[in-house]
Structure formats: structure tokens, C-alpha cells
TrEMBL record:
GO terms for molecular function: ATP binding. Keywords: ATP-binding, Nucleotide-binding, Transport. This is ABC transporter ATP-binding protein. The keyword Kinase does not apply. It comes from the Bacteria.
Amino acid sequence: MTAVLRAQGLTKMYGRHPGLIDADLNIPAGRVVGLVGPNGAGKSTLLGMTCGLIEPTSGTIEVLGDKPAANAAQLARVGFVAQDTPVYSGLTVADHLRLGAHLNKNWDDALARHRVQQLGMDPAQRAGALSGGQRAQLALTIAVAKRPELIIFDEPVAALDPLARRQFLQNLMAFISESGINVILSSHLLSDLERVCDYLILLAGSRVQLAGDVDELISTHHRIVGPEHAFRSLPPQIEIIGSEYSGQRTTLVVRRTESTPIPQSMHAEHLDLEELVLAYMTRAANASFDPQQGARALQFHR
Ligand SMILES: Nc1ncnc2c1ncn2[C@@H]1O[C@H](COP(=O)(O)OP(=O)(O)OP(=O)(O)O)[C@@H](O)[C@H]1O
């Protein structure tokens, strides 16, 4: 099956400033992908390259088996909802649907009208007078009515209150389960992503720190707690992602290959997605602050 996104050595430099460095990705079809990372990590840069708005400096990227925005057919296969869910404030809801129909060959007018009705939006209402939640729903409606194979959202829920956010995500999930569409969604709200996504990409410091199926990431990462000396004999297939000390106790966050069990003498527990992401973000932040210290912190136990 064609990968949704395949990248090799993908790099974007803004002058001398890195946007994304040397990203290797291979995302299988049928996933709802969560893209996370701190401010300035490179999320919008990666999404911009995925939909062809940003040209890579070097490396390769394929989306649904083709170069992003290679031609009109490829453009129609990908829907993009940029940050702050852009709509035209002077146009009515109905105008937006007419414009969508005019610009998109595969436009599904029945779907668009049904969604507007279901959401209780007045077609004669100007978009500028809609609430933030309604504007986000309108942008989602336009994106799905294009009938793309992949929809990309850059922080779609950032400006929404908790209730509007929940409604937006419920709505999105319902559409995904009906249509089986591929989705890439960036957000700072890890609890939202945990509910929605089954694949995770974590960027920090312009680099991919972690990418994979959420179930597999959860099953291969553990928190182990004990006295420091107990960890000196950890097998090398167990990678230390982070460490914390309090009194005589050491807490490690570790990743193991699927075939390497945690030694039975050690008590290990699983992390939730938020804890896992925070461990990698902390590691990246420590390493960028002082690479020498980052490396030392991870190796002192061995
Ligand atoms: N047009 C630009 N010119 C120069 N530097 C840029 C430009 N766009 C992004 N950058 C830089 O590239 C890096 C990655 O930015 P990007 O917007 O992709 O990060 P992000 O993860 O989306 O951040 P945020 O969560 O704040 O939206 C940042 O250091 C940013 O300052």
C-alpha cells in the first residue's frame, strides 16, 4: 500500500536558520497522525512541505506516492487547513460552498450542505460573524467536501474553548470513521491527540525525535524505578530517554526493542502518551542546551 508520507533527509533552511533538518519518515496509509513538538520545532514547516506550499532545501518528500502539488490532480488529493482556520470574513457560509464547488473538481456539494445543516449554521451568515468554533467547523467542512485522500490540519483547535474543541474533534472523528480518510493533525494539546491519533510524530529542535504507531510506542516505553546501582546492568538494547533522582530512588524512562524484555528484577510500568512525549521533549531541550551534558546524562548509568 502506498505510504501517505515518505521523506528522506528532508531539510528546509530559511537562510541559515533551520526549519527542519534531515527528516526521515514513512507513514503508512490509514493513519490519523498527531504531529507534536514545542514552538519552533518545525511542525508548520513539515506540513507546508507536505502540501507543496514550502519547497524543501534538500532531501525528498512523497505524499500519497507523488511529489507534493506536482499537478492539479495531486493538489485535489490533499486538503490543507492552515493555522487559525482561514475563511473569508466578508463571504457568507453559502458563498464559501459555492466557491468550493467552483474551485474543486471532486466537490461533494451534498456532503457540504448536509454538514452545514447538521451544525446548525445559517447559510446566509457572513463568516466574519461566526464564532471561532463555527469558523473551524466551516473550514473543516470545506476541507472534507473536496473529498481529498489526505487532510492536513495545522493546529485546528488552538483558538477554541474546551467545548468547541471537543465538538470539532468529535465531528472530525465521525468523519474519519465514515470515510477512512488519512489525517495529519498538529497540536500542542496532547490529551486531544491521545484521543484522536493512532500514529505520532514528535519534532523538537528541527529534528524528528520519535515517529511510530502509538500502540507500539506505548508498548515499548516504560518507567522503571529503583536504586541507581540496580540500573548499571541494563542491557544495551534498552535506551535511556530520561532520568530523575529523588533521595535514593532513580526513575528512568526507557525504550526497548520489541524483542528485549525489561529484566524481571525491575519494576516497570507503561507511560501514557503525554508522559512519553514530555520525556522526549525534555531530552531534546537538555541536548540543545548542552549537547555534552545531554549525552552524559543519558550514559552515566552504564
Ligand atoms: N519564513 C520563515 N523565515 C525564517 N524562519 C522561519 C520561517 N518560518 C519558520 N521559521 C523558523 O523555522 C523554525 C520552525 O518553524 P515552524 O513554524 O515550522 O515551527 P512550529 O513547530 O510550527 O512552531 P509553532 O508551534 O510555534 O507554530 C522556527 O525556528 C522558525 O522561527
